[in-house]
Design brief:
single chain
Length: 309
C-alpha cells in the first residue's frame, strides 16, 4: 500500500507554500505529493496569491525533493497540447530522477477556462482519448524512429518523439465515475485507476467496473493499480476537528462525511483497511489547507506509521 498527499493549490497557495508541503511530505515518509491542475479558486475564501501552473510547480519540486513521487490529479486535456505535455512530463521525470506521474482527465471547470481565455469544447472526452494516444505514442516510440498521428483534433508528422522520460513507463493515472468510457480508457492506457470523493460502496462499484473493463480488453486486472482520493481532516478531539473542517468548508455528517477521512487513528486506520479490502493499493490524503502543517505532521507522525503496508 502506498500513501500520498494530494493538494489543491488553486485555493490560494504559492509555490513557496507548496514547497514546504512537499518537503514535509517527504520528511514524514509519505510515498508521493500530488496536486490538482486548476487555474481558478473554487468556493469562498482568499484566492491570493493566485494560481500556479501545475507542471511548472512540479518541475521546481523535482529539484527540491529527493524521494517522493510527483504528479497531477489530474491535468485537464483542455490546458495543453498533448505534444507539449509529453515534453513537459518527460522533463519533470528527468529533473526528478524518474519520479513523475501523469494524471489526465477530460476537464470540467468551465469558469476557469473563461477566466483565462482557454477554449472549453463540448466533446472533451474525444480529446481525452486522442491525447492519451498521442502522449503514450510519443513516449513508446523507439529512439531513432519517428511518430505520426492523424486524428480528429491533432496531427503530428515525423515527430522525433523526444525527449524520452527516464522511467521506462511514466505512470498514467485515469480516474472518475464514468460507467463505460472511462473504465475502457483506463483498461487501455492507465497504470492506475483512481476514484475520488466517494463513499465506500461507490468506490467498490467503480473498481468492479474498471476491472471488468480490463477483462473485456484482454488485460490482466491485477496489472492495474487501484487508488482512492479523499478529503482528510485529522484531529484527536471534536474542537480540533470542527475548527479544521470549518477552515475548508466541510461537514463530517451525512454523505459528505462518508466520503472523507475524518478523525484520529481510530477512525482513519479502519477506513483505510476497508478500502484496501476493496482492492485499493494507493491512498491519497487530500490536504485542502496547505497552511495547516500541524495537521500534516499529525497525519504523518501519528497515523502513517500505523497504516497497513
Amino acid at each position: 500500500m502506498e500513501y500520498c498527499v494530494f493538494t489543491e493549490p488553486q485555493q490560494g497557495f504559492s509555490y513557496a507554500q507548496q514547497l514546504v508541503s512537499a518537503q514535509a511530505t517527504e520528511r514524514l515518509g509519505f510515498d508521493g505529493w500530488f496536486r490538482s491542475d486548476h487555474y481558478l479558486a473554487m468556493g469562498t475564501g482568499d484566492p491570493l496569491s493566485g494560481p500556479t501552473d501545475a507542471w511548472t510547480t512540479l518541475a521546481g519540486l523535482a529539484r527540491e525533493t529527493e524521494r517522493v513521487r510527483l504528479g497531477t490529479l489530474v491535468s485537464p486535456v483542455t490546458f495543453r497540447h498533448p505534444g507539449v505535455l509529453a515534453i513537459q512530463v518527460a522533463q519533470v521525470d528527468e529533473m526528478s530522477g524518474g519520479r513523475a506521474e501523469l494524471g489526465l482527465g477530460a476537464g470540467w471547470f468551465e469558469q476557469e477556462h473563461e477566466a483565462y481565455g482557454i477554449p472549453f469544447p463540448a466533446r472533451r472526452f474525444d480529446l481525452f482519448q486522442e491525447q492519451l494516444e498521442v502522449i503514450t505514442g510519443l513516449w513508446e516510440t523507439p529512439e531513432g524512429q519517428t511518430f505520426d498521428h492523424d486524428g480528429a483534433a491533432y496531427r503530428l508528422t515525423q515527430s522525433p518523439a523526444l525527449p524520452k522520460p527516464v522511467q521506462p513507463q511514466v505512470p498514467v493515472i485515469i480516474g472518475g465515475g464514468g460507467l463505460k468510457r472511462t473504465p475502457a480508457l483506463a483498461a487501455r492506457f492507465a497504470t492506475e485507476f483512481n476514484i475520488g470523493f466517494q463513499p465506500e460502496d461507490k468506490v467498490a462499484d467503480a473498481f468492479e467496473r474498471v476491472l471488468q473493463a480490463c477483462v473485456d480488453a484482454g488485460r490482466a486486472p491485477g496489472s492495474l493499480k487501484l487508488s482512492v482520493a479523499l478529503p482528510t481532516v485529522v484531529g484527536q478531539d471534536d474542537a480540533t476537528l470542527d475548527r479544521r473542517l470549518a477552515a475548508i468548508g466541510r461537514d463530517r455528517g451525512g454523505a459528505e462525511g462518508e466520503a472523507m477521512f475524518v478523525g484520529g487513528a481510530d477512525e482513519i486506520i479502519p477506513k483505510v483497511e476497508r478500502l484496501a479490502a476493496l482492492g485499493a493499493t494507493r491512498i491519497y490524503f487530500q490536504q485542502v489547507d496547505l497552511t495547516d502543517l500541524d495537521q500534516l505532521e499529525e497525519l504523518g507522525s501519528d497515523i502513517l506509521p500505523r497504516l497497513p503496508r
